[in-house]
Amino acid sequence: xxxxxxxQKSPRAVMFRKYSVDGTQQLKSSVQRGIRAKISDQYPDxxxxxxxxxxxxxxxxxxxxxxxxxxxxxxDEPLFFNQRDGPYFPTLRLLHKYPDMxxxxxxxxxxxxxxxxxxxxxCPGLTSxxxxxxxxxxxxxxxxxxxxxxxxxLAIGITKMSTADIKSVNxxxxxxxxxxxxxxxxxxxxx
Length: 191
Hints:
By secondary structure, this protein is α+β, with helices and mostly antiparallel strands. It has seven helices and eleven strands. The protein has helices at residues 29-42, 50-53, 92-97, 112-115, 124-127, 163-169, 184-188, and strands at residues 23-26, 60-65, 69-74, 77-83, 89-90, 104-107, 121-122, 132-133, 142-147, 155-159, 173-180.
């Protein structure tokens, strides 16, 4: 069954079944600049709004969560997160404001209930009739997961294989889920 192929295999998958910050670290301005630079490199589409998102005078702290996950909080609002020294992912709330900031993949209607329960995305869910691979991606690339018939992204993941391989192999896990609607991080950022 589908549910047995949940996220246990990958240490980086589904980071926020619950969300709790075990401590925060005030960042030196040089470290803040480094984080901003990485985010800017990774999400060039945000360059025009990065000064609004992370104003120069804002307070940026790093929240430490379990599994070596760090959350970038700007004036107490979680905006990005990463694991160890991995790529930065936006929170879904940020992605909803800037839906074009990262590559998009669209799952078919049938996959929605699995995705919002935290299951990884299988290749057939991205190659079936209702699905669309909007943007070609390499392996290990952060992606926004949209769904057939829905306006907003419902999850954020990282590709386990390139989109070319997702299409050609068409079996197994295509995308590891890292953050999804109604997980701990989503609930913690409820306005």
